[in-house]
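Narrative of accomplishments. A recurring question from our advisory board has been how the design workflow behaves on a single, concrete structure rather than in aggregate. To address it, we present the structure tokens for one chain from the evaluation set, followed by the sequence designed for it. No filtering or post-editing was applied between the two.
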């Protein structure tokens, strides 16, 4: 089956959320004129427009949307048309107040924001299906329609509701998932604390309780909430597929691990026709371009390696953080092209024209409050021209060097209450290992623990507390067949029901790592341990230590002090044709670099040579050729070795030998041959 692409879009996607309902209709013609000046190819429309499209129950007003889509089509601009089901109208909530979600504490939210939805509510589902049907019937054949955009950012800001409708739905989900009440009792281990259930009707959501509840119940409720949102997406998607065949359907993800933790994107990636993503920089003093690269790599991986679309990011500052700095000159283009390097088929923004009213009026836009005589507008026009020059790379795929394993279910499980140390954050370990690989100039694919890993010479497991037996067998076979594996601490501990694997830790990883763990020994806040290596070198760890017992593995670094002094800290196990590494403490950047240096050597991974820190080189390849992206995040000019010759597409000049990349700049070379 060919990869889905926006219908009628022959260039990279460039544009943003367009909310013309916020402006007098006379402004629309000015907007479209400026869109053409900027090189806009597609805009997202109608996402928050339910109250305008259906101002009263069963009363519809499509005239304004007819005129808007006609205007876009007349000017050669495609439409990503939203189903406006993220914000039902106030009349709907007046008739169905029970459709507003309830917190675990029993508080019902009020109307007045967005995403305040009980996804189990039958009246909401019926109303959402109706407005989606009306839109599809009216616009399926409209020449401006490029793709459908269902809902908006599922899981943000509310993913789970704890009302009585959800309780009934949860019981049905449990019956389907576990088969019987006895199946639930077994999966949840309800013999503990006398929680055994005799009937499904006895089971409620994990609402407020006097102390910690059943962790397996809480984990299943996370799964249920995610599955319920996905049910609603599929309902709308199937209506659109039936009434508008051939038009791809998407919904905008938020794969950045710091921005949405309630959605299993491995599951969602299989449901959409095109994977799209929203990404916003978290400006907390860290290297934001590393998180950007990580989010882009994760999005591409959720898409199965296929091209995807950056559907939202910001031209400059956002409005919802404690402090919202502007982007530096040139940063918008650099951010945008970094996403394209890692697989995006364009760069779109929230939003086109900066709002004068509402909660996001200080969020930057393509057309700022200051109009066209602004730095942001000039950079928008320049970016549009740059993206136009890259249109030929559509359909090519980013080439990765190594894989990092990630599983949302494990993240959910590890973040439940009463774990050995609240200082062990699985996302922090994922960030840290990713950054260490990034600094070695290696391009990363993310993979599910049960996925085929055979094409990767190196696989890294930053945090996988929850691991199935199938995943353990998968990693063992991977190493036996010649792969190099690196596993970080507190992995392989519980099964899919949050039950500790039988036998010694680390459960299904015992054989592949060649060791057992007698006991965890988390460190107190501020405590550190020293590690000594075979060459006398020293590393530092914090947060966590373990009593590791080698059972075939060799000790590479040893704890030099602390409760675990004299015990192995980092081990290496040769199994079959491959090698498995294990690190039982939290290493900092220096330690991770040393560990990965050994692992990269075992895996015989060759990274680009002589690249400065924060200069990234990424390749996309396909039928139209091979494209090398060189992105300079530093304040100094850089030189990048170029194997062969080619044409630099942003400037049109020929390139050979060494590629000059200006400070803060980007160069894209289509290689010859």
């Amino acid at each position: 089956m060919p990869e889905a692409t926006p219908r009628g879009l022959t260039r990279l996607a460039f544009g943003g959320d367009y909310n013309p309902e916020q402006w007098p209709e006379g402004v629309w013609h000015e907007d479209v004129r400026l869109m053409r000046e900027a090189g806009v190819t597609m805009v997202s429309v109608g996402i928050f427009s339910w109250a305008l499209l259906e101002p009263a129950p069963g009363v519809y007003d499509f005239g304004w949307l007819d005129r808007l889509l006609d205007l876009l089509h007349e000017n050669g601009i495609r439409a990503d048309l939203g189903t406006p089901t993220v914000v039902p109208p106030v009349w709907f909530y007046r008739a169905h107040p029970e459709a507003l979600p309830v917190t675990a504490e029993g508080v019902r939210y009020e109307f007045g924001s967005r995403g305040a939805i009980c996804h189990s509510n039958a009246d909401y589902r019926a109303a959402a299906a109706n407005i989606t049907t009306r839109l599809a019937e009216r616009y399926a054949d409209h020449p401006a329609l490029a793709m459908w955009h269902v809902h908006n950012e599922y899981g943000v800001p509310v993913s789970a509701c704890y009302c009585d409708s959800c309780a009934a739905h949860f019981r049905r989900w449990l019956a389907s998932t576990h088969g019987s009440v006895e199946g639930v009792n077994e999966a949840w281990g309800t013999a503990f604390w006398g929680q055994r259930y005799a009937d499904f009707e006895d089971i409620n959501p994990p609402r407020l309780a006097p102390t910690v509840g059943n962790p397996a119940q809480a984990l299943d409720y996370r799964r249920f909430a995610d599955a319920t949102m996905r049910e609603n997406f599929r309902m709308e998607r199937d209506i659109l597929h039936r009434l508008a065949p051939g038009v791809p359907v998407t919904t905008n993800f938020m794969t950045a691990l710091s921005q949405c933790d309630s959605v299993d994107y491995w599951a969602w990636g299989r449901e959409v026709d095109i994977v799209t993503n929203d990404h916003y920089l978290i400006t907390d003093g860290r290297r934001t371009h590393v998180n950007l690269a990580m989010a882009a790599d994760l999005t591409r991986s959720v898409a199965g390696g296929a091209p995807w679309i950056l559907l939202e990011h910001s031209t400059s500052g956002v409005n919802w953080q404690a402090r919202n700095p502007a982007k530096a000159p040139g940063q918008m283009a650099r951010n945008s092209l970094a996403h394209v390097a890692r697989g995006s088929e364009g760069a779109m923004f929230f939003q086109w024209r900066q709002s004068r009213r509402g909660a996001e009026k200080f969020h930057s836009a393509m057309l700022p409050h200051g109009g066209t005589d602004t730095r942001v507008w000039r950079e928008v026009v320049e970016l549009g021209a740059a993206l136009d020059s890259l249109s030929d790379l559509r359909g090519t795929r980013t080439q990765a060097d190594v894989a990092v394993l990630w599983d949302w279910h494990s993240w959910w499980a590890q973040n439940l209450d009463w774990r050995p140390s609240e200082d062990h954050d699985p996302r922090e370990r994922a960030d840290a290992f990713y950054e260490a690989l990034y600094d070695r100039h290696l391009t990363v694919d993310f993979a599910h623990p049960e996925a085929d890993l055979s094409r990767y010479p190196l696989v890294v497991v930053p945090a996988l507390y929850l691991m199935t037996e199938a995943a353990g067998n998968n990693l063992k076979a991977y190493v036996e067949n010649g792969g190099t594996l690196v596993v970080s601490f507190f992995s392989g501990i519980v099964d899919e029901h949050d039950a500790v694997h039988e036998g010694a830790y680390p459960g299904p990883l015992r054989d592949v790592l060649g060791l057992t763990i007698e006991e965890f020994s988390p460190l107190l806040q501020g405590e550190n341990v020293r590690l000594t290596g075979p060459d006398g070198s020293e590393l530092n760890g914090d947060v966590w230590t373990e009593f590791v017992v080698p059972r075939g593995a060799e000790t590479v670094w040893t704890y030099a002090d602390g409760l675990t002094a004299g015990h192995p800290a980092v081990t290496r196990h040769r199994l079959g044709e491959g090698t498995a590494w294990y690190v039982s403490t939290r290493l900092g950047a220096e330690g991770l670099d040393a560990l990965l240096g050994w692992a990269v050597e075992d895996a015989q991974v060759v990274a680009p040579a002589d690249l400065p820190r924060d200069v990234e080189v990424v390749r996309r390849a396909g039928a139209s050729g091979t494209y090398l992206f060189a992105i300079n995040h530093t304040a100094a000019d850089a030189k990048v070795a170029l194997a062969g010759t080619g044409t630099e597409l942003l400037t049109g000049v020929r390139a050979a030998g060494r590629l000059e990349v200006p400070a803060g700049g980007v160069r894209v070379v289509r290689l010859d041959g």
